[in-house]
Amino acid sequence: VGYVGAGTCEFLLTDRGEAFFLEMNTRLQVEHPVTELVTGRDLVADQLRIATREALGVTQAEVDAARAAGGHAVEVRLYAEDAEQGFLPATGRVERLKWPTGDGIRVDSGIDAGDDITGRFDPMLAKIIACGRDRDEALDRLALALDRTVLLGFTTNLRFLRWLMHEPAIRAGEARIDTLDRIWPPDDWADRTTIPDPAWAAAASALAADGWRLNGPARVRLAADDGSERVVELDGEQHALGAGAPAIAVSDGTAHVDVGGRSVAIRLAPPPDVDRAA
């Protein structure tokens, strides 16, 4: 067609191994880091070289040799959206942020701690990419990278991505266009995502002024943004949470606690009525 420049052709692959042309994008795709990690090329730099009519400095044979040498890369998009509510967009402020590092891990991010995420922009916050000698190693590294990622202050799809990395269809490279319709959410998702005791304890320790009670241990009543409530007694153990405690960020009277990758907002509950008083 006479096109000169970086571009991506997309195809659909049937169960019979037939490939059907879908579209061509005359630009870099969001997934271009996957190609870069496998081939060793900087596609942004190559795109600029093409635009200025410079030589790429590499032959097709060299690119083919790099691909033939092996290697695999996988990318996920970290989004400001709630996968557990039909992938609806989410907004908020980045209260705490930590990106993963390590062999074969790459993060392309567009946010910093303190940024306000509004509905005026694309919900993609970052791309997290992992590469390895084969698909299994790349997925293992990506799963570890997601486990090490912390983003608190609003809802993201991080917990969903952590789950996805361990699904058999993904591990086997058999994801189809209808796979999520069949497997998401799993039947036991509500049980898996119940706020655990350490998260309540961390929030109580961070939010309680003193929680003093006459003739009893100090306690606070907490309410989470999922509608659940908990009374937590403030003993010395809660005030000395160790390395196993979840990541937490406190802002404007709200504790944003990491629950399996989801930022859960926990606040001091309003005074109970007679029926709930304890």
Short description:
The protein has 278 residues and is an alpha+beta fold. The protein contains ten helices and 16 strands.
Explain what you see.
The chain has 278 residues and is of the alpha+beta class. Helix content is 27%, strand content 28%. It has 10 helices and 16 strands. Strand 12 and strand 13 form a beta hairpin. 24% of the residues are buried.
How many β-strand runs?
16
Helical segment tally? 10
Spatially, the strands of the biggest sheet line up as 13-12-16-15-14
- What is the arithmetic mean of pLDDT? 90
N to C succession of SSEs: EEHHHEEEEEEEEHEHHHHHEEHEEE
Q: Report how far apart the termini are.
A: 75 Å
Radius of gyration: 23 Å
The helix/strand class is alpha+beta
Oligomer: single chain
**Residue windows where pLDDT falls under 50 for at least 5 positions:** none
Into which percent range does the helicity of residues fall?
25-40%
Shape, per Cα inertia axes: elongated
How would a textbook summarize the main sheet?
A: 5 strands, antiparallel
